[in-house]
Write a structure and sequence with these properties.
This protein folds into two domains: 6-122, 2-Layer Sandwich (D-amino Acid Aminotransferase, Chain A, domain 1), CATH 3.30.470; 132-283, D-amino Acid Aminotransferase, Chain A, domain 2, CATH 3.20.10. 27% of the residues lie in helices and 29% in strands. It has seven helices and 15 strands. It has helices spanning 27-31, 49-62, 71-82, 157-169, 213-224, 236-240, 269-283; strands at residues 6-10, 13-16, 34-36, 39-41, 91-99, 114-122, 132-140, 174-178, 184-186, 191-196, 199-203, 229-232, 244-249, 253-260, 263-264. The longest helix is centred in the C-terminal third of the chain and has 15 residues, at 269-283. The chain is globular and about 50 Å long. The structure holds 4'-deoxy-4'-aminopyridoxal-5'-phosphate (PMP). 4'-deoxy-4'-aminopyridoxal-5'-phosphate is lined by residues 38, 160, 186, 189-191, 209-210, 212-215, 248-250. It is an enzyme of class 2 (transferase). Its EC number is 2.6.1.42. Belongs to the class-IV pyridoxal-phosphate-dependent aminotransferase family. It catalyses: L-valine + 2-oxoglutarate = 3-methyl-2-oxobutanoate + L-glutamate; L-leucine + 2-oxoglutarate = 4-methyl-2-oxopentanoate + L-glutamate; L-isoleucine + 2-oxoglutarate = (S)-3-methyl-2-oxopentanoate + L-glutamate.
C-alpha cells in the first residue's frame, strides 16, 4: 500500500496497516467533522503526551463532538502501540475523533455518534542538522469567527495546504502565513520564532493560529534558561531582519530556518539552545 508500519486501535482492537473506518455516509468524510492530535515517540520518550491527549479532547468539544476517551486511557494505548514497533523507530502518534452520523439539518454532526481511533506509525524526524527555507504566503489564517481555529481540526488544513503548495512551487520548504491583519501567525504546520540581539520574539496567540504545545514548552524552557521571550504582534519585515528564525512543532521539534525569501540565514545559537533544552526536558 505504500504506508509505513502502522497500527490503529478502533473499538477495542488493534489493526495493522490502514484499516477502513468511514463510509460514504460518515459525517466526517462528507462534511469534515474530524479532529486529531500529533505527538511523538523517539528515543524511548513521548514528551508532553498528556497535553496532546488532552488537546484532542478539547478539539472534539470545539467542533461539537463528544469525547469518549480519558487522557489516561489514551496514554495507555500509546504505550501499547509503541511496544509493537522496534524501539529505535521514531513514531507519529495520532489520536482522532470523528462524527459518524449527521444531526439536526444534516450539516451539524450528531455528537452522540462520535468515534475514536488511535493511529501510530513509523515517521522519521528530521535530524539535528536540518533547516528550512521560508517565504511569505499570499494566503491568510482565518479568525475564530470564520473557522474553529482553537481546534486541531482536519477542516483547517486545506488552507494550510494551499500555502504549502504555493511555497513549494516557489522553491521553498514552507510558508509564513499571516493573520487577517497581515501580522505573522505561523508556518503551515509549525509555530515560528525569531531572535534579535539575543532576545526571542514569537507571535502572541490571537485566536488565528494554533498555540502549539511545543511552542509553549520551548517558551518555558528558554525563559527558565534566562532568555527574554516576547510574545507580541510581529510583522513579516521583522522576520526579514532577524538574526535567527526557527520553528517549533511536535513533528520535528525545533528546526532552524536557513533562508527567508532571498536572504540566507545561519542556523544560530538560540535555535540550537532551544533544541538542546527540548531534548534535555524530553529525557529528564
Ligand atoms: N500550527 C499548526 C497549524 C500545526 O498543525 C501544528 C502542529 N500540530 C503546530 C502549529 C505546532 O503545534 P504543536 O507544537 O502542538 O505540534
Amino acid at each position: 500500500s505504500g504506508w509505513s508500519e502502522t497500527w490503529t486501535w478502533i473499538d477495542g482492537t488493534w489493526h495493522e496497516g490502514n484499516p477502513p473506518m468511514m463510509g460514504p455516509r460518515s459525517h466526517a468524510a462528507w462534511l469534515g467533522s474530524s479532529v486529531f492530535d500529533g505527538a511523538r515517540f523517539f528515543e524511548g520518550v513521548m514528551p508532553d503526551l498528556d497535553l496532546h491527549c488532552q488537546r484532542v479532547n478539547d478539539s472534539a468539544v470545539a467542533l461539537g463532538l463528544k469525547p469518549t476517551m480519558q487522557v489516561g486511557e489514551m496514554m495507555e494505548l500509546c504505550s501499547d502501540a509503541t511496544a509493537k514497533f522496534s524501539p529505535d523507530k521514531q513514531l507519529y502518534i495520532k489520536p482522532m475523533y470523528w462524527a459518524e452520523a449527521d444531526g439536526p439539518g444534516v450539516i451539524a454532526a450528531d455528537p452522540d455518534s462520535t468515534r475514536f481511533c488511535m493511529c501510530v506509525f513509523d515517521a522519521p524526524m528530521s535530524g539535528k542538522g536540518a533547516a528550512n527555507s521560508i517565504t511569505l504566503s499570499s494566503f491568510r489564517r482565518p479568525t475564530m469567527e470564520c473557522m474553529p481555529v482553537n481546534a486541531k481540526a482536519g477542516c483547517l488544513y486545506p488552507n494550510n495546504a494551499r500555502a504549502m503548495v504555493e511555497a513549494k512551487g516557489k522553491g521553498f520548504d514552507n510558508a509564513v502565513v499571516c493573520d487577517m491583519l497581515g501580522n505573522v501567525a505561523e508556518l503551515t504546520s509549525a509555530n515560528i520564532f525569531m531572535a534579535k540581539a539575543g532576545e526571542v520574539h514569537t507571535p502572541v496567540p490571537n485566536g488565528t493560529f494554533l498555540n502549539g504545545i511545543t511552542r509553549q514548552r520551548v517558551i518555558k524552557l528558554l525563559r527558565d534558561a534566562g532568555y527574554n521571550v516576547h510574545e507580541r504582534t510581529l510583522g513579516f519585515d521583522e522576520f526579514l531582519e532577524a538574526d535567527e528564525i526557527f520553528s517549533t512543532g511536535n513533528y520535528n521539534k525545533v528546526v532552524p530556518v536557513n533562508r527567508i525569501e532571498t536572504r540566507d540565514l545561519q542556523p544560530g545559537p538560540i535555535a540550537s539552545k532551544a533544541r538542546e533544552l527540548y531534548w534535555e526536558f524530553s529525557h529528564a
